[in-house]
Fold these 4 entries.
Entry 1:
Amino acid sequence: MKLPRAQASAWAAAAKMAQRLRRAECAEVSPSPVNWSQRAALYVHWPYCEKRCSYCNFNKYIPRGVEEAAVRRCLVTEAQTLLGLSGVQRVESVFFGGGTPSLASPHTVAAVLEAVAQATDLPADTEVTLEANPTSAPASKLAAFGAAGVNRLSIGLQSLDDTELQLLGRTHSASEGLRTLAEARRLFPGRVSVDLMLGLPAQRVGPWLRQLEELLRCCDDHISLYQLSLERGTALFTQVQQGALPAPDPELAAEMFLEGRTALREAGFRQYEVSNFTRNGALSTHNWTYWQCGQYIGIGPGAHGRFVPQGAGGHVREARIQTLEPDNWMKEVMQCGHGTWKCIPLGKLELLEEVLAMGLRTDVGITHQGSPVFVGRYGRAGLSVADPSTSTPRCLASENPLPCARRVTAVPAFQDTVLGPFRKPCHLLPSILRGWGQKGRGGHGYLPTRPSGMGSFALYPSLPWLILQRGPPY
């Protein structure tokens, strides 16, 4: 979407002024500690796409036209309503996902961030991530998103092979993807993440590794490796089911992942979560909130959230799902201030399940020392995802991880001897975490698996190293 030059200049100047004011306020007033129950991440779902990729089952729509001003007003209204309901005093990260949020106007991003800053504390250095597809993110628009307040990009390259990109239904070529990555790194140095998929039909280890090696020559400091998950109702699922394409080989996918992990480690990356690798401390603060079971508020059609509604006097953490269909969601927001479709109070058992599923995804693991999720008020029990002193991104950026004895004290029954019949990781994983797989962002399921919330492809192959080995998984 192109904006008139005068209008674009006006909102860009306003956004920069707001950022300067927030920095000035932070400099003048030393920040007071804000406890866990008063902090949250914010996920913003933009549900529209140019086309549906062949593997995707997210909550997304291909509209003939979008009344963006109306969508923007509803996003702003729902953000204000749910922030007030949550009672949080600080938003620590914002993630614009979809769909294809890079199709939205930067004005929409600026408006949402300004609404958040007016409703609660939004520090000037808050991580603000936007998912971008190469064909909808020319350099001029990326720069405009930066002026609107975005300071981190997540680029869905998915593959560097044009034949594979066509198979996946992507609208960009490999060269266009690399060109977008170069522009993103120029505009957001050290703050660009890229996605690379593996385990596609007929894909082979050698060619995929060459893609990864090419990506390592031009990437930034964060890479996500995702294994394709064939989802019922997608074009790719139908093609495989009808025999038009071979089914992905899980053994080859496991080999790709293990070889890819080795290449990433040799390039200085650390695997801080099952499918996410970082160097120079550039991990995703927003996704880390998910994996530490922190509070997060979801706005937009089909968005998920988990928070305690303290603003309404609540004391129990709730799982919330917003209405899926955009037009119905907008009607509800205009009538009620929000479009919450389901609101499910979470008991201690559900909370424990989330802590186990999320904690085992990270290289910090699970301990009994006490965490912001389960210690304190609002009916939390006494299990943790990580020590409070070690659950921050800065800790993960260090080169000296915690001794494993502290990291896995909650699962002492798993020892090296268990690995005997399960040397191939994919043999064990389906029975461990199948119930937590690839659902959530578009209202399709229960727990977030993909960063930012969730997706129709996820990666499990390295998890036994996080669960079963005494030594660190690197």
Note: The first strand starts at residue 39 and ends at 46.
Entry 2:
Amino acid sequence: MAMLDPVLIQLLQALGATIGALGLYKGLQLIYSELTSPLRDLPGPENPSWIYGNFKEIWNEANSVPQERWVQQHGTTLKYKGLFGVTRLFTMDTKALNHVLMNTNIYQKPEPARYNLGRIVGGGVLVVEGEKHKQQRKVMNPAFGPTQIRELTEIFMAKSEQVSPDHEYLFNDLPRWYEDDPHPYDQSHVPTFAILDPEIEASQKTMTRIGNQLLRESKLSAQDKSTSTSRDLLSLLVHSNMSTDVPAHQRMSDEDVVAQVPTFLVAGHETTSTATTWALFALSQDIPVQTKLREELLAVETDRPTMDELNALPYLDMVVRETLRLHAPVPATIRQATQDDILPLNKPFTDRKGVVHEGIRVRKGQTLQVPILAINRSKEIWGDDAPEFKPERWESTPEAAASIPGVWGNMLTFLGGPRSCIGYRFSLVEMKALLFTLVRAFEFELAVPVEDVDKKSTIVQRPVLKSEPKGGNQLPMFIRPHVRV
């Protein structure tokens, strides 16, 4: 066996020593940061693992359940441990959360989170921060305005009608689905749209290729004003980007425009489809609510209502609101402070040493959680029946809900502030269009015990079965055509 070159050995030893020294430095830096953290005296759960922190509790239980338990035990402002014992801040104080969501120059997505999300959706408006985000948002806002969504509603209804007994291919695992008396064991899985292919790079290349093709077509259409009738999102975005209202130096590059395509697919399509899935789950658990909703929808004389007609249906609106409150597709998000700051509080908290605090001192680099689902299900805000699906609660919204800093509906589902969901109007009308068609045409019944249904989150929270842990995302349901009397 040949001897290694002495110079190479020295280089490897030097490299090993450098890596070791860097690791030691980072470790000591982490220990010092934790020992001197302004959050060190906050109450919170015990750290069960120096490696995983409290993450295993979060991973192994339904979304927001551990946090809700911690709030009961330690109060609305607390700390918990992330990987390698790094402290994370958690607060249910709506004044503090409003401060975080409004000050996007201070509180941004952590770099690792942006990197991982960017691998899936690219450099679109969901990922970028700072001036880049402001630029993209300014150009994109007109494409998501009420006028544009009103025009898109016809497309929503046309696509919704494809989910009907005449379009069996959508549910091809149920050959007798549309018969008058389906076999009791005929089941269909409500579409939950599994997460993107693990080969992320290949998927990105495919989406980029398709995006570039769509962009070329949209630009040609936009340039030919005499024949331009396209109403799809990308065409609307191209029109907005080419508008004379947008100075040339503020326009998005072709690369930035194409980067929005996977954002439309993942952030828009995935969240709305998942929310619709949970709406059908909730309706299958409350047949009187399902019946009441169907009666309202069947009273509409047209099969293709406009956006204004959909929004004028009060019980449909309540069902959508209650679904998005109780089953928010994205259960939580995180932010990291880019500078030292103090979070204002509605309610002072007492630390472990008995000291009362009127605000929370936050150090640069501190990570905190924005608890979307926990706020939406807070008993302090919504009452003791907060964990229950009750559309009628929207007939009289609790006063406390007005403090929630959300862009829509007195909830955090679409977040709030400058980084609130740009497509929330799109999502709401699309979801109403789907439910309008589905609930008018079909009756939904859960095909497994409700205790068997669990939630697991990978960007969005999807249904899984406890009895089939390796079965992937699924929600087995009996789906029967509704026979009008």
Note: The first strand starts at residue 77 and ends at 81.
Entry 3:
Amino acid sequence: MLFSACVATGKSLNGLYIPKLGVIRRTFIQDPTWAVRASVPLEDFQTFFYNQTLDHFNYRPESYTAFKQRYVINSKYWGGANASAPIFVCLGGEGPIDDDITGNGFMTDNAAQFRALLVNVEHRFYGESIPYGLTLDKALSDANTRGYFSSAQALADYAEILVYLKQKLNAKHSPIIVIGGSYGGMLATWFRLKYPHVALGALASSAPILYFHDIIRRDPYFLVVAKDFLKTSSSCHRTIRLSWEEIDRVASEPHGLTKLSRTFKTCRPLKSSSQLKDYLITLYIGAAQYNDPFTRPVKAACNAIDGASPKNDILGKIFAGLVALAPNRTCYVNPPSRPSQSDLGWDWQICSEMVFPADSITNNTMFPPEPLDLNEFVSDCKRKFGVAPQTHWATTYYGGHDIKLVLHRFASNIIFSNGLQDPYSRGG
């Protein structure tokens, strides 16, 4: 895989499973030596801020309001405009670009060979690129402000910055290749389709552009996660599959939640068995989504589950797997936490246009069945943001149906890269 796929940590809104996207997971077991290999020196990058147009698609006075949009440049390897050396641009996804800058070794590794200029552009409403200088939670609390938070506006941002950069650098003949992973990969694909005069090509890694209504079946994500565990260890898969019923059985006993809290060393007493199950599901899908070749979290979890003492019951084995996935912690399941920018922003994005109704859990996986009730999801979005999701807008605006035929007719120079163990590979 060219990027590790990005995703997902738990339920969104009213207990609905819609995994998040991203390029680098920020909280998971990691091999320190891998982190060193993948890191890029920060001193190679320069940070800039572009006076970005708030609204690219209207001509009202407020549309011309500008906000500071962050982008960074690494010119260490660039062959220069006179040599028409290429420009590699990483399109920011649903989060600050800070970790992407140092964690994206792919761009740096190839920059030397192609003598490329490296550019990372932050997505509007994330990191330091929030209009009006607001915090994200304040921006999202204002209906007028959050209305400017969309993928179409973000793509127009990227186009405006890149046209400006080429003029500034006198790099008229330097081809631009846009790159992204997960949601950023979707943006890279759509950018090439919408702005072919700006980008010569796109590399979209783990980009679920088909992950929308009526295109793929309802449970692809969790089927792939279950398959990853099954291929790693059938006994581990079976233990996890049986654990849900056991958790509910214990929870139904007198003082059952107290027993579960003690068994799993929860940070606070459990209020329901769902709290524990949701946490475990979060860990398992994260392990599959970030099953990189250096840490192999799925294998680590299954080794712990299968290698637990014979004296352990099913829940004891599950706890052993939990510890393997989240080591060096004093407590688990419900620690005090604050939502990240990705958590806050992605809730708005899935309630506006990034509607992924395919994220149901059926009887065909190792997880407890939980179909996605689209009506309930719409009600949640209305309650939280006062708007109903535009379920079909993404495929209307960007396409998706009959994708091979459509791309063959009018698209070119787009590389789709997927690891088959990645749960989002079924949508890209």
Note: Residues 1-10, 26-38 have pLDDT under 50 and may be disordered.
Entry 4:
Amino acid sequence: MIAQFLVFSQERERDRLDREKRRLGRLEANAMDVDGEVADEDLPSYTSIEAPPSLLPPKHYCDITGLEAPYTDPATGLRYHDKSVYDIIKSLGAGAAKEYLAARGVNSIVK
């Protein structure tokens, strides 16, 4: 009876080791090298897929709040989110408007 139990547990251990070897083999097949690139260069990854530019228009954000800005003030060129932000823009001086535009990276002449 004990000999039968030892044979059974040895078989279970052998099966477990076989499953572990197969699992490690699959992991090694999908393994990445040190640089984080896929070992097989033909496989696409997030860093290797070439994509064309987006067909969607770029989003514009409010220069004051950072929210989406559907409106642009024609006098200063600042983008704004809603009427309350527009009131703030109207109260700004020309120097402050230029600073907001410079922060966005636009060098335009404010009237």
Note: The chain has a mean pLDDT of 80.
